[in-house]
Amino acid sequence: MNQPLSPSERRREIVNLVMARKSISLEDLVAQLGVSRMTIHRDLDLLEERGLLRKERGGATAESSLLFESNFHYRLQNENAEKRALARAARALVEPGSVIMVDDSTTTLLLAEELETIEFVTVITNSLPVCELLRGRSNVQLILTGGSYNDTLQAFYGLICEQSLGKLRADWAFLSASSVIGLSLYHQDQEVVRMKRALMAAAERKALLLTHSKFKARALNHFGELSEFDRVFIDARLDEPTRQKLRQADIAFELV
Fold first, then answer.
1. One GO MF term, please (predicted)?
2. Residues sharing a CB contact under 8 Å with residue 197, sequence separation 6 or more, in sequence order
């Protein structure tokens, strides 16, 4: 007979199930884990408080909402081919000796992977995965902003992060967004918004990397306009009506 899971093991299994299925019902969790509905409710409340999933009527989901940004590891699994194409297109902007800033998105993490062939580059970031990827690379001078660490987003934020960025300058800043509504960019978290604005202010030029799904997503906090970016890369699955709207608004963008 199998031993019952400890509370921490059970919650870890809940997160794994939600990430694997995107959404799961309360009844399925009860059946899978063999505990009461009340226990699952308490687990979901705690996991939502930690930012690992979003509790919804009748179950839980890993999908983002106006207020909730999905877990970093969940986002890393999605649209990998599209993000990889965007990263390769953006990589062409980085010249040997450049100083670049990279935000905390999963798309720009893939850009960091593309830097291996550049002779020398300085990378400034608030992203822990970018730091872990690039540390020890002989061709990279790595500068981490510091700040308050957010485990759900795998990055650093807050006053220290923003002040660090305010004292630095870069040739390029590479960013993504949670949502594009009209011609405006949005994110769920105000601290992330402030970090992105600090990145944008510190760079001579700015590049934006967007998957087509961002034009269907929604988030609460405005942080910028498409027109503020020198280069905008969007994956080729962007629908034709949205392409036409961007062209009519004179937004220069490149499909990759």
1. DNA binding
2. 223, 224
Contact residues for 117 (Cβ-Cβ < 8 A; gap 6+): none
Tell me the β-bridge partners of 212. none
Assess contact for 205 and 230: CB atoms under 8 A. yes
Burial class (CB within 10 angstroms; exposed 0-12, middle 13-18, buried 19+) of 62: buried
The answer to whether 253 and 86 are in contact (CB under 8 A) is no
- Helical H segments across the chain, by residue range: 7-21, 26-33, 37-49, 72-77, 80-91, 106-113, 128-134, 159-166, 190-202, 240-248
CA distance 77 to 60: 18
**How far, CA to CA in Å, does 250 sit from each of 89, 226, 231, 245, 256?**
21, 10, 13, 9, 19
pLDDT in tens, the chain (256 residues): 457 788 888 888 888 888 778 788 888 898 888 889 899 988 888 887 776 777 888 888 877 655 455 555 566 667 789 999 999 999 999 999 999 999 999 999 999 999 998 999 999 999 999 999 999 999 999 999 999 999 888 899 999 999 999 999 999 999 999 999 999 999 988 999 999 999 999 999 999 999 999 998 888 899 999 999 999 999 999 999 999 999 999 999 999 9
CB atoms within 10 A of CB 141: 12
pTM, to two decimals: 0.78
